[in-house]
Amino acid sequence: MEFKHNKKRNIGLISEFFSRYIATAFIDGRHGDIEKANRIWQKYISPKTETYKEFVLFNALHDTALKNKQIAHSLLERVKSEVQKQSQEKLDREKSALINEINVSLKDSDFFKRSVSNYRTIASVQLLMNAWRGTGFKGGFADLAVLEESILEHMLQDKVLITEEMANVSAEDIDSLVVKIMTEKFNRKYSDTLNPEQKEIVRLFAFSGKDSAARTELVSLLSQIQEKTLKVMSSRTLNESSLDRPLRNKLAEIKALMSDGGEYGDVTKLTEDAISFYMTISKLREEMESE
Q1: Which of 93, 146, 205, 277 is most buried, with most CB under 10 Å away?
Q2: CA-based angle 61:213:188, to the nearest 5?
Q3: pLDDT-derived band at 53, boundaries 50, 70, 90
Q4: Among 111, 128, 142, 91, residue whose Cα is nearest residue 36
Q5: pTM above 0.70, yes or no
Q6: Residues 6+ apart with CB under 8 A from 160
Q7: Per-residue DSSP letters for 233-244?
Q8: Who's near 115: CB < 8 A, 6+ residues apart?
Q9: Of residues 154, 146, 74, 80, the one with CA closest to residue 122
Q10: How far is Cα 51 from Cα 87, in angstroms, rounded to an integer?
Q11: Which of these, 214, 216, 232, lies nearest to 289 by C-alpha position?
């Protein structure tokens, strides 16, 4: 079955495009672009929006893995019921505004052109949700049944394993589940780029907003990174002749930022800037230790 699909209005693809944009901006050190992308995401994918509701329902179909076909079918029907309650008109308005802000604020002509490995499945999930709302699907009942069956089979594949008990996840838990899945996707895609310490920062920061234990663990990890890096810097004389003046000045500046009274000296202030800073510091210390 082949049906027209608008990738710019696919909430699953939009999520993937944002993840890739932010990851690329982080690697390139474009922290201002990361902040802009985060602001746009939080503005349009917030709990009060219809787009956010669609995002949660999308992930229930795309990222859930179940072993029992009857339970998977039950979840499919529950999602279908919620999808049909949504307003397509409101969704179209919100997505139009989101697309416009992406184009105007990020000014990235390649934003919607990024490669996504599971594109076909993501497209099928969005197409099915649209069909349930009575829009964008030109097939008959038989075609719809085939599409539903393909998504059902996808839910039975091994992914992020969700037990039978977790199929009855509460509304409060859904957001944490989505964050967990997105974090694992990020780690799998960039496992060759991030060191283990950086991946742990990403994991803990994703949950630090709602999980006090994760927040405490993250603060402890950043404190260790801070202490170890300052120790490595102190063990190497910043005035040694092997370092040119600009590099010595830069290292001195970084040391000042991490020290007491510096902008990132207090590791309990878990801002996005601070997280980006300490992820960079983790990589810097790794390189200094290897030398």
Answers
A1: 205
A2: 45
A3: very high
A4: 111
A5: no
A6: 63, 64, 65, 180, 181, 184
A7: HHHS-TT-TTS-
A8: none
A9: 154
A10: 10
A11: 232
User: Of 287, 35, 3, 12, nearest to 140 (Cα)?
Assistant: 3
Using one digit for the tens of pLDDT, what is the confidence trace for 84-138?
999 999 999 999 999 999 999 999 999 999 888 788 899 999 999 999 998 877 7
Closest by CA to 269, choosing from 194, 179, 205, is 205
Q: What residue spans of the chain are helical by DSSP H?
A: 11-28, 31-44, 50-62, 69-84, 88-101, 119-132, 141-155, 171-189, 196-207, 212-235, 245-258, 272-290
Q: Contact, 276 vs 26, CB < 8 A?
A: yes
Q: How far apart are CA 259 and CA 208, in angstroms?
A: 23
* pLDDT (0 to 100) of residue 93: 95
Report the sign of the C-alpha dihedral through residues 34, 39, 44, 49, in that order. positive
| CB of 104 closer than 8 Å to CB of 131 | no
- Helix (H/G/I), strand (E/B), else coil: 65: strand
| Nearest by Cα to 111 from 128, 124, 130, 98 | 98
